[in-house]
Amino acid sequence: MRRCRNTKIVATIGPASCSEENLEKLFKSGVDVFRLNFSHGGHEGHAKVYEAIRSIGKKHSCYPTILADLQGPKLRVGTFEGDRIELKAGDVFRFDLDPALGNNERVSLPHPEIFAALHGGSLLLLDDGKLRFEVTDCGEEFANVKVLVGGSLSNKKGVNVPQVMLKIPALTEKDRKDLGFALNLGVDWVALSFVQRVEDVENAKSIINGKAGVISKLEKPMAIKALEPIVDVSDAVMIARGDLAVETSHEDVPVIQRQVLNACHRIGRPVIIATQMLESMITAPSPTRAEVSDVATAVYSGADATMLSAESASGQYPFEAVSTMADIITRAEADPYCIRRLEDDTQLPIYTTLDAICSAAWNAAEYSGACVLVLYTDSFEAAARCSRLRPRVPILLITESKSLACRVGLCNGITAMIAKKEPSSDVQIKSAKIAVVEKQFAQTGDVIVVLRSDAENSVTICRV
Q1: Which terminus of the chain is more solvent-facing, meaning fewer CB atoms within 10 Å of its CB: N or C?
Q2: Cα→Cα distances 254→45, 88, 215, 222, 240, Å
Q3: In which band, very low, low, confident or very high, does the pLDDT at 208 lie, cut at 50, 70 and 90?
Q4: Residue 231 and residue 270: Cα distance in Å, rounded?
């Protein structure tokens, strides 16, 4: 099934969308990448969703992409005697390792790694940043704090510690079990939550060992400080704007978003923009004007994909949310001025044979009036580098690798099909002409460009 747009749509699966019927509706509405959120649900439920998605792909002769998003280290306070307390600005409070029920004076924070990293003046943010505390005194087992912003604090609320490097692994014991399960299923991508350092990505990649692509979720300030090396070792990146806004500040997020997009475009890493893109559609059938602009801005900025979270997982209008996002993307891409608004250095060439041949294909498509660029490759790197240049025409990837066909569903502008490798370039070109007509990318008489990223490394301009 051909999508008449380049920017991909990632949809989170949950109670509102997990049946096979609803998954197919999401697919028909425009979903390219299905996100299995391992922060919720059990293995049995995720397995059923996985099998249903693969079945839908076979039915429609295409290759939907499946992303397993690991929970990562979740930091939470303990519980209270009455389940909840009220704190006011200026109050004195204490966090400690004592597992006893909390009260208006203290509560358990069962994470010694936090206390080890704190110092006087450190900030603690609770409940998605709604409550803010400043550390006045701390030790290995406690932190005395002053309430800066008060409010209601209830059991098991999340804790954020901005601007502090926590010595905790990116993969918890739960993550390792979930990762093994997801890899056995055969997911195409694995997303790592709360990445802080390059080593977090490298350790995960050593475990995954090429069985899936690795997406680094950028939601910690420490990850932004190490942005370039993290992007370099990752296979793709997600800008997780929710926790990022809590850990930095709301006004920093657009700046960081632009910074990350530029870093990814420079070396050809697919990038997803996530969180609250159509948040109002959780409970409303249409989006706000600001949300429409947010999605369109992601398109203009050259994002590979935009993501729906609760909108498709638990919202009242999951299919409308997907259709609305598809409509916004399609309209923005139809704008003659839809040119990536990036710094000039994001388009500086990468001096490799691969990038030389991809650039040649881009020029051939641009100046020949071609309607599609056919890419023969079994390499994800080649596909991502070709996508990086954002040709004005769609890219039809022809590969022998089913795993690659599924994985490139995340890349801007690429549609994949599986075919056996032809014995000669002449036969490949003939097969390409047949494929572009069958897949409705071209008609008889149209110009196409064929890029063979293999031992031959050649570009051909021809008519169907």
Answers
A1: N
A2: 35, 31, 20, 17, 12
A3: very high
A4: 10
Token output for 127: 């409940």
Q: What are phi and psi of 399, to 5 degrees?
A: -145, 160
| Residues in the chain, total | 464
Taking the CB of residue 115, how many other CB atoms lie within 10 A of it? 18
Q: Please give the positions annotated as active site.
A: 35, 76, 217, 275
- The rounded distance, in Å, linking the Cα atoms of 234 and 259 is 16
User: Strand pairing of 65-69 and 395-399?
Assistant: unpaired
Tell me if 84-160 shares its fold with 349-463.
Answer: no
Instruction: Write down the pTM of the prediction.
Output: 0.93
d(CA 33, CA 66): 6
The class (CATH top level) of 8-73+170-334 is alpha beta
pLDDT in tens, 50-88: 999 999 999 999 999 999 999 999 899 999 999 999 999
Q: Are 367 and 388 in contact (CB under 8 A)?
A: no
Cβ(304)–Cβ(271) below 8 Å: yes
State mean pLDDT over 435-442: 95
The β-bridge partners of 13 are 36
How many other C-beta atoms are found inside a 10 Å radius of the C-beta of residue 336? 5
Q: Where are the domains of the chain?
A: 8-73+170-334, 84-160, 349-463
| Residue found under tokens 């021809």 | 462
349-463: CATH topology is Pyruvate Kinase; Chain: A, domain 1 (3.40.1380)
84-160 is classed CATH 3.40.50.460: no
Q: Where are the beta strands (DSSP E) in 223-311?
A: 236-240, 271-274, 305-308
Beta bridge partners of 85: 153
